[in-house]
Design brief:
- The chain contains twelve helices and seven strands.
- With about 280 residues, the protein is α+β, with helices and mostly antiparallel strands.
- The protein folds into two domains: about 60 residues, no CATH class; about 160 residues, hpI Integrase, Chain A, CATH 1.10.443.10.
- β3 and β4 form a beta hairpin.
- It is globular, with a radius of gyration of 24 Å.
- The chain starts with a strand and ends with a helix.
Amino acid sequence: MTRLFVLTSGWEAFMTTALSVATGTCVERLPARVPDFRRRASVSRRHRHVDRPRTIRRPETRARLSGLDNPARGIRLPRNTPTPRAYLTHTPKSLASPGKPGIRHPELVYALAYTGLRWGEATGLRDRDVDTRQRRLHVQENAVTVNGTIYVGTPKTHRARSVPYPKFLGPFIDTAIGDKPTADLVFGDGREHLRPPSSQSGWFAAAVRRSQAQDPGFQCVTPHDLRHTAAALAIRAGANVKVVQRMLGHASATMTLDTCAHLFEDDLDTVAGALHNARAAAYPR
C-alpha cells in the first residue's frame, strides 16, 4: 500500500483520507508541522475545517468512512470569541450624511444602512424589483463574487422577500434608477453588477478613513456592518424580532436573536416602564 504524507488542515486531510478508500493509499499527517499551519489560519476557519467532517449526510458515505481515522479528531480548537460589531447612527457624522464629500455610490450606502440587504442582494436589484409607491424592494436575486467572477442566483435562504425602505430614502432610490430600462440594475451603470470594494484600497475604505480623519471616534466599518446598522436602527425604532427577521432575510427568528440579541437589551427597561404605565392607568390615584 502506498503511504502518502499530506500537510493540510483537518478537513482537507480527512477528505484525502476518504479518497484513499478508492485508491488504496494510506494517508498520514505530518504532526510536527501542522500546528504551525493551524496558527496561520483564523479561528473561524479552523472551526469550519474541523466541523465539516461531521456534516456528511449520506449513510453509505458515513458507513464507508466510519472505519477510517479522522485526522481532525482530537484537535484542540481555540475559543471562538465574537468580534465587536460597529454600527452607524442617524447623526451628521454618519458615513453618507448629506454634504459628506467624495463618497461614491451614496445611494447604495444609504440602501444598505436602512434596509439591511446583503451586498449581493442590493447589487442584484433591478428596476422592476422596486415598488416606489409602496416603498418596497423585492429581493429576488443575489450576485455573489467568487474568485473574481460574479454568479447570480437566488437569495441566501432561496426565498424572495419584500423589504420596506423609509420615505427619506425615496429620492436616493429614484436617483439610482434614473431613466434606466426595467431590466437594468438599480445600482451602478445598470448593466454590470457592482463588485465589493477592496477592504484596504476600495472606495468604501477610503470614505471610512476620511470620516475618521474628521472624527477620530468614527468606527471602522465595512459594507456588511451596514447590515447590522440597519438592524440596530430598526430595533431602536421599535421593530420586534419577527420584523427584523423578515427585513434581514434570516431563515428563522432564532438566527436573528443569535445575531441581534444584544440590541434588544434596552427593551427590558421599556417593558418595565410599559408595565408601570399600564398599572397606573388601571389604578389611578
